[in-house]
Amino acid sequence: MSADKVFHSRSEGIPSEGVKDQYADGKAARVWKKYIGDSNQRTQNYKDFLTGLLRKHNCVKVLDVACGTGIDSMMLVDEGFKVVSVDASDKMLKHALKARWEKRKDPRYDEWVIEEASWETLPRDVQSFMPGATFDAVICLGNSFAHLLDEYEDQRTQKMCLENFAKVLKPGGLLFIDHRNYDAMIDSGATPGHSIYYNCKYPVDIKTSVLVVGGKPELVALDYCIGATADGEISERSEFRLCYYPHKLDKFTVMLDEAFGNKAQHSIYADFKPLDQVENPAYYIHVMQKPL
Ligand SMILES: C[S@@+](CC[C@H](N)C(=O)[O-])C[C@H]1O[C@@H](n2cnc3c(N)ncnc32)[C@H](O)[C@@H]1O
Known about the structure:
GO terms for molecular function: folic acid binding; glycine binding; glycine N-methyltransferase activity; identical protein binding; S-adenosyl-L-methionine binding. Belongs to the class I-like SAM-binding methyltransferase superfamily. Glycine N-methyltransferase family. It is found in: Cytoplasm. It catalyses: glycine + S-adenosyl-L-methionine = sarcosine + S-adenosyl-L-homocysteine + H(+). By secondary structure, the chain is α/β, with parallel strands linked by helices. It has one domain: Vaccinia Virus protein VP39 (Rossmann fold, 3-Layer(aba) Sandwich), CATH 3.40.50.150. Helices cover 28% and strands 26% of the residues. The strands form two sheets. Strands 3-2-1-4-5-11-9-10 form an eight-stranded mixed beta sheet, with helices on both faces. The structure holds S-adenosylmethionine (SAM).
């Protein structure tokens, strides 16, 4: 790695060697669940968008490949979907497992499967705990995919992971995948404070840094600062850094199409609305339908 790429892409406490888990020190994981609230605090727009499309396409079995603390998965379990949730971070999964335990008296949660898996080895990982399984839908939401940085400067790992998502889908199945509007973030150097996914009751300060290498934006670092809250829910000020690959809409669109052999139906939404209805969205959400 060249000297100009030495940039602290992790919070203190995250070791530098071989670690792709940006949540490994547990710092962000601890506050994340409180910050984004529970599944009841998901925005109605998001819930209607996701469950509406899943039902329209008769999707029942859903794989959440970036379940984190389990929030989206729980929203789907509550809505009657059969959900399998995976994540690469055991620090995040710990919260999902605890949430399932807390719901143990609710029969809808009996079939909620939570396992550790990485996008890089997804078909093999799923095979190990659910042989032969394929899914009606795969979701990778909440700006999760951008956590995967471009180690080799040719996006080969990202391409492989997108192909893995396509592999675990049934023919006709749907992939929901999103990214922040990095085009706008690079231009403005700022990140929208509000979320389209959750109704956050706590103020958060997000500082945005864009690392440009050879004239090309290679990484966006977001420094989150969440203060202690008066209700005592968050007892101390929390600061953590998460780094993202700044996916540009046009390039990401091509990469996704290629991952599905240029044969999938590809719809793009802006903040859950048709693309032409939102001028400067916070997020782009791509929905791929794998060919039959
Ligand atoms: C921002 S969190 C989002 C979690 C959840 N979808 C939400 O909206 O709250 C992103 C998640 O992606 C997971 N992740 C990052 N890289 C991964 C990989 N290679 N394989 C599986 N999960 C990964 C992280 O561990 C983290 O839990």
